[in-house]
Amino acid sequence: MPKKIITGVVVSNKMQKSIVVQVERRKQHPLYKKYISIRKKYIAHDAEESARKGDRVKIIECRPISKRKTWELLEIIGRGKGGMEGA
Length: 87
Hints:
By secondary structure, the protein is mostly beta strands. It has one domain (5-77): CATH 2.40.50.140. It contains no helices and five strands. The N and C termini lie far apart (40 Å).
């Protein structure tokens, strides 16, 4: 079975070698047929600590690295407008 790849925006990079990625998808309500936005946050492993807050990234499934961290950074698609935090 192939590994899942999802795209999202980095909302936090304050942890060491970890980022928080928020993924937003649209789903249709079963009864009212209105589209609603569903957001979910994933903790992903960033070994080089290259992703910054606001970046658009792709993450891929991996083996469990810790209790909540089962994703790792695949690539940075686009840079965000995040400032120079921590630099």
